[in-house]
Amino acid sequence: MADLTGREVNADVVESCRLGDRDAFRALYLLYKDRVYSVALYFFHGDPAVAADVTQQVFLKLITSIGQFRGDAGFSTWLYRLVVNECMDAARGRKSKVVTSDRARMEAFAVPGSQEEDYARTQMVSSVRSAISALPLKFRIAVLLRYFDELSYEEMAKALGCSMGTVASRLSRGHTMLAELLKA
Amino acid sequence: MKFTRHISTQLAARLDGQLTAAELRKAEEHLRTCVRCREESEQVRSGMAIIKSLESVAAPDEIWSSIEAGFQPAPKRPPWQRQWLLAPAVVLILAGIVWWRSASSWIETSSTSRTTISIGNIGTVEVEPNTRVRVVKDQPDEHRLTLARGEIRATISAPPKLFFVDTPSGTAVDLGCAYLLTAEEDGSDLLRVTRGWVSFQWKGLESLVPAGASCRTRPKAGPGIPYFDDASDALKRALETNGNLTIILSESRKRDTLTLWHLLSRVEVGDRARVFDRITALTPLPAGVTREKALQLDHQTLDHWREELAWTW
Question: Please, are residues B119 and B126 in contact by the beta-carbon 8 Å criterion?
Fold first, then answer.
C-alpha cells in the first residue's frame, strides 16, 4: 500500500487493518509514528525509552481495537485518545521509578549539523524541553497535541475527554506558563 | 464604572482562530480596554512561538519490529474449520502439572507449576502456582475468568470492558491494563495494577484502580478503598485495619486524592465534609465542581472531579 495522508485514513483502510492487512497497518504506522513518538518524547522530558514504549503500546492497542473505529470521529482524534491514555498511564507508573540519564535524553533529540549548530540547538531544545516538563500534565498534553497534529479544539476535546472550553483554558494557561518559565 | 470579565481562558482560542464570530468580537472589544488581558495575550503568543520551535523527532526503527511481532492477521478459515472457532481460544503452556479439560473446567496449578492462558488476541493471563481458575466465557466481545484462589497476572491490550475476572468478593473489569490479582483462602482479594486502569465492582460498589495503586476486597463487603503503593505505611495501615479517618486525612498527599475521592462516598455522612476539605486543601476545586454538589454525592459532579483529580494520580 502506498503512503497514506491523514485525510486518506478512511473506512477502507481501517477495514484492511481490521482484516489483518499488514501493509495497511504499516502505512498507518508510518503516517503517525513520528507524531506519536514526538508527543511522548516531549511529554516524558525527552526520555527515549519511555517514548518508544508508549509509541509501541499505542500501536499495539490500535491493532486490537481498530475494529471499534466507526468513523464517527476523525481517526486522529481516536488515535490521540489512545496516546493520551497511554501517556497518563505511563506517567503514573513512572512516579516512583528511576529516570533516564540526561545524556540519553539529549541524544534522543540529536540531528546532524555542525558542532556550533548542535550546541545552540541543544541548549534551545534543552530549555524548551525543561519548560514543557515543568507544565502540569494536563497542560503539557494539551499543548503537545495541539502542536504536533494541529487538532482542532473539538478534536482535542474528544481526545482529552473534556469540553472545548476546558481545552481553550488549558491551552491558554499552558502557553502562558511556558512563556513565563522561559523568561525566568 | 463598566465591569467586564477577563478573557484569559479564551486567549489561545482567539490566536488559534477557534472562536466564533460573536466570541471574537467580544474578545476584541475587551482587549481594547484591558491591559492585563493584552499582556497575557502576548504571553500566550510567545508560548505558541516556543512550542512551534520544537522539531518532530523520528521514531526509532526498532519500534516497528516489536509491534509487528504482535500483529496477527485474522486468517480466512475454510467452512470446516468454523466449528473450531466456537471453542475457546485458550492456549496453555505447561510448566508443571496442570489439570484442564474444557472451557468450563477448572484449571489448577500445583505448588510447582505455572501456566499461561491466551485471552483471544487481546492478551495473556499468567497463572501462578497453587491457583484455581476457570475460563467461563471466551467470545470476541467478552472474555471472562473465575478465580477461586491463588494468583494471576493479566496483561491486556484491548478496549475497556472486554476482559473480566470474577472472584469470591467481586469482579475485576479490565479498562486496558496489566495487573496482578490474588485471591486469598479467606475469600478476600488483593488487586495490584501495573498499567492502565482496573475497575473492581461488587453489587453497585466500584473502586477505580490506576497503575501504581492497589485495592483489597473482602467477601460481602466488596471493593475496598484503593491506595497508591507509595503511600505512607500509616495511611495503608489505617485503611487496612481500623479505618482511622484522622490518620488517613493527615497522611494524604496530593496523589492520595485517589484514596480520598473514593472515601468521600463511603464514609459516614457526618465525616464527608472532612474528606472534602482535605481534598480541596491538597488540590484546588476545579470549575464545575461545587461543595454542595460534591457533598450530595452528585454522580456527574463526582465523575467530573475524578477526571480532573486523575491528572495528579
Answer: no
Instruction: Dump pLDDT digits (tens) for A79-126.
Output: 898 899 889 888 876 654 444 455 555 555 555 556 666 676 677 777
In A69-108, the residues whose Cβ lies within 8 Å of chain B are: 85, 88-89, 92-93, 95-96, 108
Ordered by start, the domain boundaries in chain B are: 1-42, 86-224, 238-313
Amino acid, single-letter form, for residue B67: I
- The residue in chain B having the minimum alpha-carbon distance to the alpha carbon of residue A141 is B311
Between CA A109 and CA B83 the distance in angstroms is: 53
B chain contacts of residue A26, beta-carbon cutoff 8 Å: 64
- At B42, list the grid cell: 502576548
* Cα–Cα dist A57/A97, whole Å: 19
Reduced to 3 states (helix: H, G, I; strand: E, B; else coil), residue A182 is: helix
Is this prediction's pTM over 0.80? Answer: no
Q: Which domains does chain A have, with CATH numbers?
A: 6-183 (1.10.1740.10)
Give, to the nearest 10 degrees, the angle between helix B62-69 and helix A48-65. Answer: 30
Hunting for cell 479505618 — which residue is that?
B243
What phi, psi does A152 have (nearest 5°)? -70, 165
Encoded amino acid at A101, one letter: S
Neighbours of B308 (CB within 10 A): 20
Neighbours of B178 (CB within 10 A): 21
CA B208 – CA B223 distance, rounded (Å): 9
Size of interface A-B (CB pairs under 8 A): 174
Q: Which residue from A minimizes the CA distance to B73?
A: A20
User: Counting every residue, how long is chain B?
Assistant: 313
Q: Hey, of B63, B72, B163, B195, which one would you mutate to test binding to chain A, going by the most A CBs within 10 A of its CB?
A: B63
Q: Which fold has domain B86-224?
A: Jelly Rolls (2.60.120)
Pair B176, B158: CB distance under 8 Å: yes
Whole-number Å distance between alpha carbons of B226 and A157: 28
- H, E, C per residue of chain B: CCCCCCCHHHHHHHHCCCCCHHHHHHHHHHHHHCHHHHHHHHHHHHHHHHHHCCCCCCCCCHHHHHHHHCCCCCCCCCHHHHHHHHCCCCCECCCCCEECCCCCCEEEECCCCCEEEEECCCEEEEECCCCEEEEEEEECCEEEEEEEEEEEEEEECCCCCCEEEEECCEEEEECCCEEEEEECCCCCEEEEEEECEEEEEECCEEEEEECCEEEEEECCCEECCCEECCCCHHHHHHHHCCCCHHHHHHHCCHHHHHHHHHHHCCCCHHHHHHHHHHHHHHCCCCCCCCHHHHHCCCHHHHHHHHHHHHHHC
Give tens-digit pLDDT for B106-143. Answer: 899 988 899 999 888 778 899 999 999 999 988 877 89
By three-state DSSP, how is residue A146 classified?
A: helix
